[in-house]
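Sequence decides. Consider this:

===
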Amino acid sequence: MDTWMVREILERAFREDMPMGDITTECTVPEDEISRAFFVVKQEGVIAGLDVCMEAFKMLDPEVKLKPLVRDGDFVENGTRILSVEGNSRALLKAERTALNILQRLSGIATITRLCIEKIIGYNVRVVDTRKTTPGLRILEKYAVRAGGGSNHRFSLSDGVLIKDNHIKAAGGISKAVKAARSSIPHTVKIEVEAETLEQVQESLDSGADIIMLDNMTTQLMKQAVELVKGRALTEASGNITPETIQKTASTGVDIISIGALTHSVKAMDISMKFE
């Protein structure tokens, strides 16, 4: 991640959290006070977002001393210290909540991603995210998916053609939509089509789609779709897939499994900052 992108996100967060300063800290803590603190996890999981967390402290205290005790992507046990921070007490207190909010959320995303990956060991399939991310935090949340061992789908609407149900209706059908897209995009851009039935899978194939999204299909229907495609296009399973159901989905032979829940409804990891 580029530092300027991270700083832009953090600047917005700081403006939201202390639009006219931190009155509690400024009233109670001496201006030149120096403190040391550490971050400790209160549940097991996968860490993601340490660099972003540390950048928050650097922005408010350029002289801060930071010592990461683990790395992004590491699995840690309950009680593990993951970061040591020493610097201006006011700066540490002002940055605390913003740093924690991001670190906790990204670590939660990395943790559920790792859980999904572990459920499908032995299957030749990739787990990817979606665009169902927190507005303004997409670059961070997709990074967390990678830290957990997953891969990324599109970052934005500009990255590739994904013809979904509403596009199909508005364009007048799958064939028309694919033909129109193919005539407009460079040869380097792939076309993905969302299909809900075997008839739509066949039409997508006949139209020359590169990827076919098998949307909200039953396991049995997915298997039939994969057999119908026979490797002529990539197949992507999508729709209400969870850690509990992902293994059944992987067993259908799909190439990709996309899971919106990796980012849109994740539970943040419980992490605290404690002063020494």
About this structure: The first strand starts at residue 34 and ends at 41. The chain has two domains: 3-117+267-275, 119-264.
